[in-house]
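Follow-up to my post from last week.
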Amino acid sequence: MKKVQLNPVGWMSQLSQVEVSRLQDATNSELFAMFRNCCLAVLNSGVDEDNFEALFAPYENFEIKLIRRERGVKIELVNPPEVAFVDEKLVRGVHEHLFAVLRDLLYMGNKYAFLHQTAPAEGNDITDMVFDMLRHAKALEGNDGVNTIVCWGGHSINQVEYKYTKEVGYQLGLRDMNICTGCGPGAMKGPMKGATIGHAKQRHKTGRYIGISEPSIIAAEPPNAIVNELIIMPDIEKRLEAFVRLGHGIIVFPGGVGTAEELLYLLGILMNERNAQQPFPFILTGPAGSEEYFEAIDAFVGATLGPEAQAKYQIIVNDPEEVARTMSKQLEKVKKFRGAMGDAFSFNWSLKIEQDFQQPFIPTHESMAALQLHSDQSKSDLAANLRKAFSGIVAGNVKAEGIAQIKKHGPFELTGDSALMEKVDTLLESFVKQHRMKLPGSAYEPCYVVKNS
Amino acid sequence: MKKVQLNPVGWMSQLSQVEVSRLQDATNSELFAMFRNCCLAVLNSGVDEDNFEALFAPYENFEIKLIRRERGVKIELVNPPEVAFVDEKLVRGVHEHLFAVLRDLLYMGNKYAFLHQTAPAEGNDITDMVFDMLRHAKALEGNDGVNTIVCWGGHSINQVEYKYTKEVGYQLGLRDMNICTGCGPGAMKGPMKGATIGHAKQRHKTGRYIGISEPSIIAAEPPNAIVNELIIMPDIEKRLEAFVRLGHGIIVFPGGVGTAEELLYLLGILMNERNAQQPFPFILTGPAGSEEYFEAIDAFVGATLGPEAQAKYQIIVNDPEEVARTMSKQLEKVKKFRGAMGDAFSFNWSLKIEQDFQQPFIPTHESMAALQLHSDQSKSDLAANLRKAFSGIVAGNVKAEGIAQIKKHGPFELTGDSALMEKVDTLLESFVKQHRMKLPGSAYEPCYVVKNS
Amino acid sequence: MKKVQLNPVGWMSQLSQVEVSRLQDATNSELFAMFRNCCLAVLNSGVDEDNFEALFAPYENFEIKLIRRERGVKIELVNPPEVAFVDEKLVRGVHEHLFAVLRDLLYMGNKYAFLHQTAPAEGNDITDMVFDMLRHAKALEGNDGVNTIVCWGGHSINQVEYKYTKEVGYQLGLRDMNICTGCGPGAMKGPMKGATIGHAKQRHKTGRYIGISEPSIIAAEPPNAIVNELIIMPDIEKRLEAFVRLGHGIIVFPGGVGTAEELLYLLGILMNERNAQQPFPFILTGPAGSEEYFEAIDAFVGATLGPEAQAKYQIIVNDPEEVARTMSKQLEKVKKFRGAMGDAFSFNWSLKIEQDFQQPFIPTHESMAALQLHSDQSKSDLAANLRKAFSGIVAGNVKAEGIAQIKKHGPFELTGDSALMEKVDTLLESFVKQHRMKLPGSAYEPCYVVKNS
Amino acid sequence: MKKVQLNPVGWMSQLSQVEVSRLQDATNSELFAMFRNCCLAVLNSGVDEDNFEALFAPYENFEIKLIRRERGVKIELVNPPEVAFVDEKLVRGVHEHLFAVLRDLLYMGNKYAFLHQTAPAEGNDITDMVFDMLRHAKALEGNDGVNTIVCWGGHSINQVEYKYTKEVGYQLGLRDMNICTGCGPGAMKGPMKGATIGHAKQRHKTGRYIGISEPSIIAAEPPNAIVNELIIMPDIEKRLEAFVRLGHGIIVFPGGVGTAEELLYLLGILMNERNAQQPFPFILTGPAGSEEYFEAIDAFVGATLGPEAQAKYQIIVNDPEEVARTMSKQLEKVKKFRGAMGDAFSFNWSLKIEQDFQQPFIPTHESMAALQLHSDQSKSDLAANLRKAFSGIVAGNVKAEGIAQIKKHGPFELTGDSALMEKVDTLLESFVKQHRMKLPGSAYEPCYVVKNS
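User reply:
Got it. Predicted complex:
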């Protein structure tokens, strides 16, 4: 039995004894199982595998323990994956990531009582919590440059698309922009990899490659090798809020349902009238050959949310330099706006996010069936409901709990008015046809059926 | 009417909107008046005056305001003292200190509800609060070197003594030790001043000159010009705990009742059996000509607490090099002990401090009269009670509230068994005789009478 | 006509007026034409093209000027390649490289009178010059870690080999080793690229990617995008000396004649009896499928220089981790040896290099024909002569001057005893057969004929 | 016999073997005796004594050796003064200073062949040498802020004057200005000491306290404890040139003949027509009570060099804040001028210094007698000659060689036209009367007689 003890780093190296006690109290909680799994995912950083069962299977006898010292807490790994070690020493980046998981899941989890209690009632409090988590992660320091670009897109894109995300990242890096993504492979890794080369050429030595994950997704998308700041938000909604308040602009690459979910989330927020003045750089881009994806998305948005939604983003095909140049110019407007508003450069306080976008949506057969999927509501509400529908499908595809539900009860049923449902159906089928639902090599079995009401 | 707005620095530059709201809510509280006064004291940094009325009189129309921005909080000064400005710009050190006051008094004050609520019930919690405040002040970072020396002593010592404290500081600085004192002039400034020269010669570029104050004393002892880290603990007891847990060794220079209070506090703790193993460097020192002071103190300690108390400290007369060398050697033992105990280098968790030493003692005519001043109790309890008696006298001498009480009700009455009270009387008279009760130039009127029970 | 002026950086930002005058005096020299060409190569950094004529053709109207200011010297670029700019701003890395060229070619060129005078007579002086150039380039600072690995190998290797060099670089980077290569694509880029990922994972923030070039080769092998320190040595021999004195270990990947030249150079030195005690990590490695290359080399070394030469290196096939682990262990011996010898960690003074290895060999039809290629000499001399022969072939293959000579006079003729010449012939043919003589896509026309004497 | 070996630091830690050989060759030279004495002075840093014989007497058995290692050079001290050590370890600042002496005296001495050869013929070359020495000392890096203030004044000023120089330094430090002086006590230490407090309050962490000395003066004025950069120029004239080209403004405090020499040097240069456009902040200042000094100087300047000379400086009495404020404003003009001229911020290339001010003046009875001290010459020439006369008197007062000459041949004789000589006489007598010729406590015996021609 191999055992490795790790000294705390970062924020976790300065804990009070009461805080350490509380961490230890969490050892038997449900949260701790999640903690163990996230750590296991982190220890598998860089391994390309999105089937969490396949990933975790070899490590059934992996354990993680918290060891109390007068001076604070240590982590003990029992039978950890060999891949995280170099000549018997844990890779330093992985070491840091493990304590990021401890910080975000257990320490902040204790502070905000994730899971055990209902979520804080007021939206204001949720934004504060998001801020507080980013602050503890030291993600706000050094975010004053108005140059953090969030990149969304699929984790299982093809080689041409992957290469394209690298080129876009390279062009962003050449312009001193930092990259923030969702942590995994594919479109979440490519821009980071490209940016490292751009940063190197520009001698930009403090390049940031921020990965924002959440407990239910990290197993499927462990942080890639480039991520040098890992943050784990407690649920999807807070993760999405972290993206849009921390980032200064957003680029969407081809992806699957998850990417569509993110896009609908952002559209729903930007269509809020109180955000009408917000300059928010928002670019959809992909290589020649991937037009189909954006056409399908754009058609869907146009048909469901209308041209005012389409006006929120810009589609650029096959031109990485143009993407970076456009982003660069629009960031100037963001800077001006923040200055004029008295808003922080490092955190977008002034962006209004309604509670419906903040409250966790927990996909079950009931909650999915209950979604209001009809055109007879405000565009912002419609965006919110579509976002939830797609969120549920992501869960059914890759998340442990979602998959378990599908196994037990069969596919989720989505119902709504027939015109709308047809558009949803068309979009989802286009994803399946473009092989955007799974890592290459496996056939996709849909976790949902679309019904007309 | 002159107005100056200040942007936040340090921890205070990253506040959430809820936190800012809470700060603003404090604007009308009693705490805010204290905040205003502490800021005024900080703005008078470096001015030699221990009469807070004389210090504050010219600034009746001084106001301080908190201004809310989307991005956080700003401080606005109305009619601030000119002395804090250079060519119309606020001195950067003062700027930092003001936000330290905001952090410790209002931000931490909100967190721990100072004043408004009763103090936390358990000793453990108090230690955690002390730790948390030092952590927020970033005082623990960089305190791993086991080289922070706390210097106690009077603020109104004579020139020979002052020069001696500089020489000791110089020798400490030459040995790469940092200085932590109570913030004001005299023995609190000299060691810092000397250490800057020692540090300069040794190219020790990160010299720390930590001042730990508390709201009721800061007006009388504003931070001297050298202090580069200011921390304001909510009350005397937490301030004393901060000294002994943050510092790695303690030097006591000649002083008055306040110094005697500090010395009794430390003796009381070190005499606790559970601290018997703790190596705790503790040196009393002064120049030739000040022997009388230490003789009086040592005689008093011997007569009241006995030789086991005397064994806790070492008296070195007129030999700055020997002081520094001795300290240096003993720090090695501290380092070993912390390592062996698994204790932190930056914070002495393993030192046991009983609740009686942690709970605030609020000196009133009643509480002073009620003190158990007789030999018929454990040495540690006796030390605790004597400490409180001296604490009350300090309040009656220099603190606003204490002085007001004395004005209204006459001197505090101390009662106890006659043998003990005689020793107390002798010690206090020796202080008066040595002119250690007030800044030079004014005659001392005792704020207490000693009665035999 | 586009003009861009550049302010000096690094060492070149602090020149005296006399030094600036001397730089300007060089404007009309032959050296200046070389300076222009090197700058042009640097401006094409990252472009994959090893035919200097194809590379330079589009830039006939490119000019470079030195502009004198009271404060120092500026560079003016006229009609520079667009590829070096991002949104009209020169890439900072390229900016730095241009001043590295100015420093090494003109400033140091003036100091040591490159080209204009005969080379310094004594070997000692040459070593001093090499040291001085590395010192000016600030390459010695930060080289104390005994972790700089020189990687040699071809610039036109195949994809499998390229990927392998990246993997080796990755494993070296994971072990905190820095990379030094000859500056171009292929085996000179792969290890650097891999190391950046290894360094990122280990949070090794000061990763060094040193490129050492020389004027006649830089056009064919412009610095790749990763190089963050560029050094241009005046000739091949000083470049080779810089490699072996700056680096702490050497890895040889598959390559062509140039790689064979480097290998023979190092073998010749290590076989010197005065270097018998020197631990010098020296590993030949390549992926599965490239064994043929090492077999040919090893057979040639065995047949010509004997088993004592073969004992100087270790061949590891298809095991990047083993390469890095072996290197890591051997570096410990280097560290011990340097310590024991009182030698510098940053520069290998104690390695003995005979004058025959230091004096420039200028390949002409005469000098090539005059080479002593027979077995009837010491092994070290034989290695030196073989090295020269291969050096000439490199010139005939890729260097402007060499190619011009071949065009004019036909192939170089190599003569020697038939047994030896046969072995040379076999080796060279194996290179041709393995397509190691040119970038893929062009057929190789030999620039030499082998004759038996 | 106590021996201490020191590893090289700074520039001296990277020497080539040829450079080390040359250093060792210097071991038997006359320069080496000077090197030994400068080192002894440095080892006595902070000791208040301006009689070099008294200073050196206890250390007759002190020796210094250079030890050659493969990797470079070490210094060995034999029987060094105890005062430079703390607990058997050499103070780091002193350690650095010793290698500064080695660098400037032996390394640069070898490079420029000080003493052994005649000085370089052309003025241009001298300026280049001054630049080169400052560059090697890394004094130019970090001098771009146009905020280095040179302070001249006596080393034996009274307590009121000393305190005043501290206050001026404090006000300069509060305005982020750095201090450069001649290295010793008195007016050379006060401004540095004051500035450290000003810098501390403004959190100016890179405060520079540059001491520029020369071999014949360093024994009498060893670097004070604050100096953190020591530079030793080969002779007085190069030291003066270093002051005026490195500094951005000059403040003159009360002093003696040496101070008068410096003042005349600067006036002579500023009166050069080619410097007419140069803004050069030049302030004479002292406390109330020292007016007499400036009146005497100002009267002398007015009477000899005329009102155009008086217009070059500004006299401010007893107002440290006004001094600093004035300096601060004038530095803005310097910044603009340098920008407009294309001159460096870190070194004043554009200031014209005639050869007569650059060539070493070696005071002997002959050269002193030969000085042209009459009004019948240009003002600039007159200033140059008066400067030399005063330079000779400084030598006769405090320099070893000068004192020896006076002992042997009696006082220097100065001759010139009677009107001028009377003014000289008056000025010098006023210095004697004000006790500005020697450290307090000793009577002054003039080393000169003034004769009318």
